[in-house]
Amino acid sequence: MPQNVDPQDEGFEEELGAVLRRTGNGFAVDDRRELVAGGLRRGRRRLVRRRLAVTGGALALAAVGIGGVYGGSLLSLVGGSEQVSVAGPQPTTDSAGPAAGEPVMPQIPVEELAAVLKAHTPAGTWEIDNLGGTGQSVRGVYDDGEGKAGVTVGLFRAGDTAESGEGQVTCPSEADVPHDDCTSEPLPNGSRLMVFQGYEYPDRREETKHWRAVLLTKDGFLIDASAYNAAAEKGAEISRENPPFTPAQMKALVTADAWTPFLNQLVTEPDMKKRGDTQLPPAPSGPAIRATLRSLLPESLTVADMDAPYGHAYLVVDDGEGRGLVSVTVQPSAEQLRGVLFGGADVVTLPDGRKVRTIKQPGGQGGAGVVRWTVDTITPKGFRVSVSAYNSKGQYEDATRAEPVLTTDQLKAIALSPAWQKLPLK
């Protein structure tokens, strides 16, 4: 693997499959935002992809680092507890039932889900996929006469409580995921709703718009709806200016009482654990990482924006000469990445055994003139801290200044701070 490739870089995806196979004993990847083993079915695969799409490309690839680190454990959705196995060996299949260790998926007739979808959207024609099948999601193409639009709705279990899925209904930072609008609000019945208006590709390499509404019920269920201004989320020509449903109509769709009878048929978290799934090892919370990062920044910087997904934190800061994005990844158990990331000639070993890489490279996400400086560190016990600074206010934004907002010496001081190892693990 090239030694100048950072795990959060766009180019890293080209090396991803080989790295995971070497470090994870049979890992596989079929999309950089869809890190799942072959045994899980489409419903859970789509939930992973939906969250990582909103969370952003860099975070998705940083999560790959988590997968490589945690070997036989799970890749957690950022901020939530819906989880999928990313580790080998692959499960064996029993001809009489699902693969060993695989949750038994709900057998909800797609026809019934489609009926609820049609009843709670404006009049139009529908082409529904797999209409005679079963599952926990429905997908189709909708046409109101103004252009075809892909639409999906999925029902999922986030966990035993609403807190388990809070990350699913928290708006992403504009610095990490450019979007036109996003609202997140509590509802009177104890549920929480997010309505997101953004793009399938945050770098806008295609103008496919992605509007999404997610309801997290007080009991920890997720109703997740997406609509596009093309007949499919990827690979289809733009067919209309905007997705077919307004934010208010998206809200009405996911909050419809008609979904309730289906929710109790979903696999529960305890049932998943009984079938062999495990939790991710403890790690610092996103907010704790963000607070620590903020405390380690120079006092002269002001904070303009922030976000704190699982295991990471992002701040947009300003020193008076232009805003810049600063991000940090903290992985307490990254021993399996030592040989992959810290084996090159550019690595410096400190007297206490910590290894340090300093990388200067293009931003890699499409913004004009963007560069990223990174200091990546790992302790002898495998505690990894990687800190990056950009010369733009977001990964997909054009450069706002000549150089990143922090020097490599400042990045090194932040990454090597003992404060990271003092954070409580959750």
Key phrases:
Protein Transport Mog1p, Chain A; elongated; seven-stranded antiparallel β-sheet; 26% strand; Jelly Rolls; 426 residues; 10 helices; alpha+beta; disordered N terminus; 3 domains
Could you give a short description of this structure?
By secondary structure, the chain is an alpha+beta fold. It has helices at residues 13-24, 42-55, 57-69, 110-119, 247-254, 260-263, 269-274, 286-296, 338-341, 408-415, and strands at residues 74-76, 83-85, 108-109, 125-128, 134-135, 137-143, 148-157, 181-186, 192-199, 209-216, 221-228, 302-307, 312-318, 323-331, 347-349, 355-362, 371-378, 384-390.
Low-pLDDT residue spans: 1-103, 268-279
> Order of strands in the sheet with the most strands?
4-6-7-11-10-9-8
H/E series, N to C?
Answer: HHHEEEHEEEEEEEEHHHHEEEHEEEEH
CATH class of the largest domain: Alpha Beta
Indicate the radius of gyration in whole angstroms: 22 Å
How helical, in percent, are the residues? 10-25%
Distance between the termini: 32 Å
Total strands: the figure is 18
What kind of sheet is the major sheet? 7 strands, antiparallel
Q: Given the helix and strand composition, which structural class is it?
A: alpha+beta
Mean pLDDT comes to: 74
The portion of residues forming beta strands comes to 25-35%
Q: Count the DSSP helices.
A: 10
In CATH, the topology of the largest domain is named Protein Transport Mog1p, Chain A
CATH architecture identity of the largest domain: 3-Layer(aba) Sandwich
Overall 3D shape: elongated
